[in-house]
């Protein structure tokens, strides 16, 4: 079983989880966790023993040299970290993992046992998928909740997806079975630029977390990285007439559809985020 290091009691913690692999197009979801670990100075408190869950021919260990000059092997694993965001009313548990090769139910059970030990009150899973969406428009994010009451309270839908699933779907199912309220956000990454990173999708997921947690998250260089990414894709499209025509078709389809990003409510949310960030920066 997973062992949790001794940690001071957490305040109404929320667990935010993302997994590398099938659920993580362009690494957009796992990049959110990496960013939060960095900006919130999160501390690792537990790690899954990889021996039981990973095929090391599929997820190979990495050899390198540590700060002391010693050769070390780093094994693929999944970790739980604890963060206490400044000014937040609740603490955060960050789950950064790799989709396991085997024993998915045991894997989820161990992680949720650790979450229970830390007092987690709600789970938020993040994912990213490839979709027919233009890189020049806001990245669509779909949000769902595990329970009708939670969906109503957070103004989210219940998932109606049917088909193959990855570890995120299995993890959400395990949450429901153990009565952990669960929310999931999925970003749609333009399929013609599937190579990581996709900072624009990472930013879109962070925006959803800000709304859910009602806090301001430091963004660092991500906004400029997203603009640079978009400029880079623009240049690639300009060099290929077929891709340029395809992007224009996607833009036309998107612009004529009913866009939640263009609603007055969405614009108001973005403005509120801007004001909160400005207030936080002036306070600092």
From TrEMBL:
One of the record's GO cellular component terms: proteasome complex
Keywords recorded for this protein, A-Z: Proteasome
Keyword Heme recorded: no
Protein name: Proteasome assembly chaperone (PAC2) family protein
